[in-house]
Structure formats: C-alpha cells, structure tokens
Amino acid sequence: MRTPLLATVALFASTACDGSPGASPGAGDTEPFDTTGTTAAGEGPGTTENVDTSGVATTGPNATSSTTSLGSTDADGSTDTGTLDESSTGSESSSSSGGSTTGASEDCVPVPLAWSETTALPIALGQGDRAGMLDGRLYVAGGVASKPGSLASDLVYAADIGEDGELSTWEPQAALPLPGAAQQLVVAGGNLYGVGIPDASLAVFGFPTGQIVWRANIEDGDITAWVLDPALFPFPFVSGFSTFGTEDHLYVVGGSSLTGGAPSSSVTYAQVYDDGTLSPFIGGEQLPSPLVGAGAAVLDGEALLVAGVDPTEGATGTESYAASLQADGNPDTWAAATVLPQAQFSPSVVRAGDRVLALGGFYVDQVTQQITGVADQAFSTLDGVSWLEETALPAPRNAGSAVANDEFVFLVGGAAGQLPDTIDTASVLVSRHCDVTP
Hints:
Layout: E1 9-10, E2 68-69, E3 72-73, E4 83-84, E5 108-110, E6 116-118, E7 130-134, E8 137-141, E9 156-160, E10 171-172, E11 184-188, E12 191-195, H1 201-204, E13 211-219, E14 222-233, E15 238-239, E16 242-245, E17 249-253, E18 256-257, E19 267-271, E20 282-283, E21 295-299, E22 302-308, E23 319-324, E24 335-336, E25 344-345, E26 348-352, E27 355-359, E28 362-365, E29 370-374, E30 378-381, E31 387-390, E32 397-398, E33 401-404, E34 408-412, E35 415-416, E36 423-424, E37 428-432, E38 434-436
Parallel strand pairs: 4-33
Antiparallel strand pairs: 1-3, 2-29, 5-38, 6-37, 7-8, 8-9, 9-10, 11-12, 12-13, 13-14, 15-18, 16-17, 17-19, 19-20, 21-22, 22-23, 23-24, 25-28, 26-27, 27-30, 28-29, 30-31, 32-35, 33-34, 34-37, 35-36
C-alpha cells in the first residue's frame, strides 16, 4: 500500500519503539459509536475547508528546483500502502498504506497500465485520506488538508466498482469517531480497520493512550458504525508507520513518534479472530534498521516494504526490505530488497494481481538528501527483485491511496501537481492492470 508523505510536517522527531512483545488491552468502549456523521464532543465539524476539488493539477511531471527537507511527512503523519479486494481468492489480504494483498487469479494476464479519471470524491479530503476495498466496494476515510486553517476530516465515503472499473456515485458512511481517527485503512481477515490516532486528543475523551484500532461495522456494504477494538499496539502516537493485512493477521511496521525520540524498527502484529476482533499485538522479527514512510504489500506470502527512509543513517528514500510470513504470523528474517530504479521516496504501493505497483511519491536528491519534486513515475515488480517502469501517471501525485481488485487499480485522492504548487485533489485515477478470462 501507499506511503505518501506530505513535505511540510517534520517527521523524524520520534519516540523509540522497541517492538517488545505484548500490548496493554485498552479500556476503550467496544460498543458502536454514533452513526449520524457527527464528531466526538468538543471536536470541530470534521470537514476540510479551502481545498481545491477540481481534480488533478496540470503542472509539469518532473522535478523542479524547489527543494524540501526529506524529514517530513503527511499532515497526519501516516503511511498508506493500498489495499486489494478481499473478495479475491487466496490467503493474502490487503493493507492500507499497509499494502493489501489477495491471491491473484490464475487467469489474470498482466497488461500495460492506461490511466483515466473515474468518479471524483465529493470533496478533496486532502493528504492523508485513506482507501480500502472490500467485497466490491471502495471506502475512503479521513484526510487532513494541507492549506492553513483546514481541519482533519472525519468524513467517510463508499462507492461501488463497476465491471468496467468505473465508480458509482460516492455515498456518505458513518463518520469516524474522531477527525483523522483512521490514519490508515487496512483490510485483514475480511474486515476493514482504521488504524491510529494522529494526536493526543483521544486522551481528552477518555480513550487509552497509545495507537488504537477501529473496526468498521458493515451492513449490506454500508459502514454503520466504527467499533473501538481493545487491542492496542504498543506505540505512543506513532506516525509514518506502514500497515498491511493477511487473511489471519494485521501488521504495523516501523514509523516515528510525534513526541520526540528515535524512529522505529519495530514490527508488531495481531491475530484476526473469526468475529473480527484482534488479539493483543505482539512484537515480531524487527527490521534491520528504522524505517519511516515505506509502502507495503504482500506478494506470494512475502511482505515487501518499499522506498522508506532510515533517518538515522541519512535518508535517501530507497530503503526496501522483504521477509517471508510464517504460519504463526511472525515475519522471517528481514533482508534488504531491490530499491526502485528512480531515487523515489514514499510511493503509493499496492498488490495488483501478480504484480506489486509503486506509484508516484517524491523524487529525492541522494547527495543533498532533499526532496526535489513530486513523482509521476510508476514501477512494477513480479518477484520483489526486478522493477520495471510502467505507464506514468497523468500528473505528479503524492499522498494518494492505491487499492486494487482482480482487474483494476485505483489511485485515490492525495495531492497533485509539482512542488511548490501541489493541491489537494478529489481526483480518482483508474487503470486496468490485467485481463481476466472466464
């Protein structure tokens, strides 16, 4: 799934997270929250103001002379990696920024990407909106607009996916319990989860301190409520983390804290029970080094983390790792994986059929370690080793969410255009990624 990072907010001030086993069960309420679309008491209206909703910007596709420090992230600080439709067969599930995976169809023949616009979101939710796909519906939640004075959003929408890949009209869903409450949407075990709280405001409302997980209560395709899962993962206000899901487990990897300290090499995961609740998160095999802002996907039982940074070693935007997932959910030893051909940081990453796609993100100068522009390039890998260049996006895009089903891949929202003039966009791009024979 994608790892979009907004180049205006400091990322690398963080608290060390050691990924130690166990997590304190939360005291959070497990009853559904109000479904009227309102935010928690004392919060704002949860809307995103002063945001361009006209779609993709038309500025040039290549890097400009503008430079931004690589020590930066999305407005909500999270990393999205995309999601695959859980309706596919196979044991791999999706992740948001947490890359998602489903088993690829044996009759799927990969085809060159050809991007077009489909039904735009009702408004531009901004950088940090998150997408997930489940049972033929596409869900988008949250978002934080990048313009001064705008708010984190609690808005949630859903659209049906047609046989030709076109989206239906977006329909409002039950709002998030707090604005920005879902830093990432993840599909795991046939359930849709919102992971993370972007700031300490949850303590004001009596929620447990630490990152938390909300589970969507879905009836006939509509989200009617968000249920607080008692399983906390043991990170204090982590941002820039990656998530992905399988049929049996939900994973949270790496990241940084908003409260100071070192970035994390932690890997934690929880088992998905039959009723959709989660076991306590436990520590798994740690990464060789801290990783922030990586895209994530699962390909043939192997977790792939793409184009994150290790800020302790001087960020180049090309850190990638891979590990096989064992039967008990714990990753095997992580090994360095092939980096993208272009010095590209935090692309939107998604499993699409037999390929993993990396879309857009930021260009990075590996000498100065500065972000030099927004990328329009797209790459794919069939084996996690060799990356091939695909058809470029129509315009530079960062911080969007990539999701895919058996035939189509979507790039939802985020920010379009070139630095320093990127705009939050309501645009949704679609491309067929394979031909499926009956």
